Amino acid sequence: MPRPLWAGAISFGLVTIPVKIVSATEDHDVHFHRVHLADMGRVRTRKVCELDDEVVSQDEIGKGYQIAKDQTVPVTDKELEQMPLPTAKAIEIAAFVDADTIDPVRISDSYYLAADGQVAAKPYTLLRKALERSSKVAVAKFAWHGRERLGLLRIREGAIVLHSMKWPDEVRNPDELAPREVEVSEEEIEQALQLAEGMTIEDLSGFHDEYREALEDIIAAKAEGKPVPALAEDGKQEKGEVVDLMAALNASVKAAKESRGEDGEDATVHEMRPSKKTSRKTPAKKTAASKKSTASKKPAKKSAAKKRSAS
């Protein structure tokens, strides 16, 4: 298990459950250093005061809040530590709600809660079973990095998971982003549902980061002094004009069904690319007759213009 990030207790009515927080996810991104290209030396970020242009050491740096353009007030760590924070070492369950009432946009980082010692085993199991049987999630308050946060407790494969959540006033209103109201027929909705059904899978473990894999191949080749692997095309799809929504839905549903196989087992849904026939309209070639008719019309226009100028 990774190193615990926090230690405290879940407060569940009169029940106390000692727990430790460990990260539920891992960062597999490829991280780069900034380097001087001439000699590959690391380029560091210096902390410079913008008033005297002097490099500042860490012990000279503190917190400040700008209340006006030319006025900043300092806030010390001691003042922050003295602020009342009842959830400093507790995850205080405030309520239980149905899981489907939580808006996913409010969910942020995820952490596992590990029982801290044998004394925590029974109350930990009690809370876990209560959440499992009720099909509910617990809403809690907890302190993280010097501020109080809202959290969500749920069960994942026998472990209690803590999701940090946005406060209600931290979620922007999307009203201005919604498109204007348009008419959508029941037949179109039904076809969209069929397409969703045809693309439904039960396991997401097959998804992987192809970009990171390609980047790791490049780094490995450079480290070994080998040529850089040939890169795939930019992956940009040809954008075709959507002429008929129903036709596009019908074609998508048909392709999804074919990809699932006759018996529907071990089916995969492949990426849909616009066909060359529909992705771009190529103008029809002019026939010889049309070229002749066009050629015969041009002199007539010129002669008519000469007559007008002569008159």
What is the helix tally?
Answer: 7
Mean pLDDT across residues: 78
Largest β sheet strand count, sense and barrel closure: 7 strands, mixed, barrel
- Total beta strands: 11
Quickly give the structural class. alpha+beta
Helix/strand order? EEEEEEHEEHEEEHHHHH
Largest sheet: spatial strand order: 1-2-8-11-10-9-7
How large a portion of the residues is in β-strands, by DSSP E?
15-25%
The backbone outline, from C-alpha atoms, is extended
Helix content class: 25-40%
* CA-based gyration radius: 32 Å
Low-pLDDT runs of 5+ residues are: 262-311
End-to-end distance: 98 Å
Structure summary:
Helices cover 28% and strands 24% of the residues. By secondary structure, it is α+β, with helices and mostly antiparallel strands.
Structural notes for this entry:
The longest helix has 23 residues, at 288-310. By secondary structure, this protein is an alpha+beta fold. Helices cover 28% and strands 24% of the residues. The strands form three sheets. A seven-stranded mixed beta barrel has the order 1-2-8-11-10-9-7. The protein has a two-stranded antiparallel ribbon with strand order 3-4. Helix 3 (186-198) runs parallel beside helix 5 (245-259).
